[in-house]
Amino acid sequence: MRLTEALFGRTRPAPSRDEQLIALSSAAVSLQATLGLVPLGSAGIVIRPVASAAFERAEAELASLLEIAGRETGSRITTRTDAYGYRWVVIADDEIADLVASAYTVSLELRDAGFGDQVLAAAFAFRATDGSRLHWLYNFKRAAFYPFAPEPDGERRDNARELQAAAAMSGELPIEPDMTRWYPMWGMPLDG
């Protein structure tokens, strides 16, 4: 606590944990220069659905908001349910800044509707110069990114590549320090 906070009884409001997500927009240049990664033009927000009328209303309001956001940015936005029953808001756009902005909007809208705990992660797809994929995953609860490098067989991941990517971007992105929390996300419905 700072002296002025103690004297006047005021503290600064804590920054939104969702704001860390925006760091990916500015890190995109470094991702390409350092790691040879180019955005595939797709991202997604994974949501744990809740069986309630309030959640259904929030989803309807979100759909309206995303339609408006899509018109403003030119993004194509759809929703899908994956094989595990999780709901995805899938965003397609050639501009990484629009992908990040749309993901941020989704998270804020759901948080404002009281469903912040249901917003699990954001995923952003990238392709390396050798054609392999690397996803940057953002864990909303931890306010941190981590890389996920699935092998082409879809059953294994390239841990060495993930460690290399995390080390290269540690100064640009808030990286999850606990590697046991680098959860794989198999079967993401991201095209590209």
- Round the mean pLDDT to the nearest integer and report it: 84
CATH structural fold name: Alpha-Beta Plaits
Profile the largest sheet.
6 strands, antiparallel
Integer count of domains:
1
Characterize the structure shown:
The protein is of the alpha+beta class. The protein has one domain: Alpha-Beta Plaits, CATH 3.30.70. The chain is 35% helix and 22% strand. The protein contains five helices and six strands; from the N terminus they run H-H-E-H-E-E-H-E-E-E-H. The protein has a six-stranded antiparallel sheet. A hairpin with a 5-residue loop joins strand 4 and strand 5. Helix 3 packs antiparallel against helix 4. The chain is globular and about 45 Å long. The N terminus is likely disordered.
SSE blueprint:
Elements: H1 3-8, H2 23-35, E1 38-47, H3 53-73, E2 76-81, E3 87-92, H4 96-112, E4 119-127, E5 133-139, E6 144-148, H5 159-169
Antiparallel strand pairs: 1-3, 1-4, 2-3, 4-5, 5-6
Helix pairs in contact: 3-4
